[in-house]
Amino acid sequence: MSEELTLINQLKARDERALSSLYDKYSAALYGVIIRICRNEANAQDLLQETFVKIWEKSDSYDPEKGRFYTWAYRIARNTTLNSLRNRPELIQNQDLSVYKNKEDDQSETAIDLTRLNGTLKQLEEHHQKAIELVYFKGMTHREAHEEMGVPLGTFKSYVRQALTNLRKSYELLSFLGLFIFERIL
Amino acid sequence: MKENYDIIESGMLERYLLGELSKDEVIEIEAALSRDSSLRAQLDQLEQDLETMAIENALTPPENVKQAVFRELQMNSDEKIIKIKPLKPVRTYTAIAASIAALFMLSSFWLYQKMNGIQEDLRVVKEQNNLLLEEKDNLQKDIEATNKWLSAVNSAETEKLIMKGNDLLPEATAISYVNHSEKTVILNASGLPELPADKDYQLWADVEGEMIDMGVIPKKSEMIVMTYIEDAESLNITIEPAGGNDHPTVSNLISFVSI
Questions:
Q1: Taking CB atoms and an 8 Å cutoff, what residues of chain B touch A133?
Q2: Minimal Cα distance from B75: which residue of A?
Q3: Which of B27, B42, B45, B52 to mutate to test the interface with A (most CBs of A within 10 A)?
């Protein structure tokens, strides 16, 4: 973590090499979020670029005391993407996933693949998965998301909490298993 | 002031993480976080989960996005005005434009040279043309003159008189053509020997014993139109000082013929 703090300090000192390292570390994670919100590869690339330019320009406003760098960068990526969609609502319509789903041919498969969620999330119950997807990967507020799911706000909040708790358990189990396998190999 | 339990149960931590909270709520929750390390630990865990989730669902962006980021940074940093670094395509276009311009200049220069050469040729041709025209005019005049005396000489009314040199100049001959109706006298002086520069032959008409000037005979000429004198009884040729004389030097009479 202190290694990352050094990078952050270099970034604040306008060292482009620090930005380059942070890009290598976080661009894929942020791109995964952006592309799932905007559902268009070309736009997602532009928005990723815009996100990292903002990270460079706003690096002064990041306070490591208050949270992780990823959280801060995630907020920038999410807001940048949501703002661009608000300014160009036609993009949401045209690139809706349902459009791709109806088409069996062309590049529809890749479009679906790109936005499908992976990893531990898939082990969650469906409504938990949906809750996390709406909030963390679709960029919806809790209010928008509970309406989308058709459940009361309080219920939705509990979905998110339960989902996160279950995720945590999975991660802990995974890291325990990982450690176990690692020790066995040694 | 909310209790930690409320903060956790109300989902404020998650919403704080996502940046969904209002300014007042942010101040409230940050105060709570700095107060309570267990709450802080909860947030840390949430953050870590969010990051893990994101890494699990990461997608590697194309390589050119990173290059685009740094290109944009450079463009923004150098105060925009000082940005002189030309982009590659611009350089290529400049090179192409420069090549075309150079080719154009070379071909223009070549054409200019060529045009100059052609203009010079044209000038020479015009000059030659003028000379030829002049020559043609001269020939025309000659032909007209020749035709004139030829028709005069060939006329049935023309009298041909042969003048032979006397003892002073026996080798001399001249032929005069006299036409009384046309009142013309033409002299063929080609048979007269050449004179020194200070002497000229002169033709005279004898009218009732008086010698009247018919003109100086120019050197090196063949057919000369002389002055016709009315009632002339004879034609006489004398040798006079160059330019002719008012009165004939009778002692220098070399030839005469009666009409």
A1: none
A2: A53
A3: B52
> Using one digit for the tens of pLDDT, what is the confidence trace for A45-91?
999 999 999 999 999 999 998 889 999 999 999 999 989 888 776 55
CATH number of A118-186: 1.10.10.10
B5 touches A at CB < 8 Å: no
Q: B6 at the A interface (CB within 8 A)?
A: no
- Complex ipTM, two decimals? 0.76
pLDDT, mean of residues A129-137: 87
Confidence check: pLDDT of B192 > 70: yes
Nearest CA in chain B to A46: B65
Contact B203, B214 (CB under 8 A): yes
- Chain A residue numbers with beta carbons less than 8 Å from the beta carbon of B73 are 16, 19, 53, 56
DSSP string, B62-109: PHHHHHHHHHHHHHHHTTTTS-----HHHHHHHHHHHHHHHHHHHHHH
Binary contact (B18, A52; C-beta < 8 A): no
pLDDT of B25-81, one tens digit each?
888 888 888 888 888 888 888 898 888 888 888 889 999 999 999 998 888 775 443
Q: Is B41 part of the contact surface with chain A (CB cutoff 8 Å)? A: no
Mean confidence (pLDDT) of chain B: 85
For chain B, which residues make up each domain, given as ranges?
A: 4-59, 79-154, 158-258
The CATH number assigned to the domain with range A1-116 reads 1.10.1740.10
**Separation CA B159–CA B161 (nearest Å):** 6
Please tell me the distance from the alpha carbon of residue A21 to that of residue A27, in angstroms, as a whole number. Answer: 10
Residue ranges per domain, chain A?
1-116, 118-186
A163 vs B: CB within 8 A: no
For residue B234, which phi and psi values (nearest 5 degrees)? -150, 160
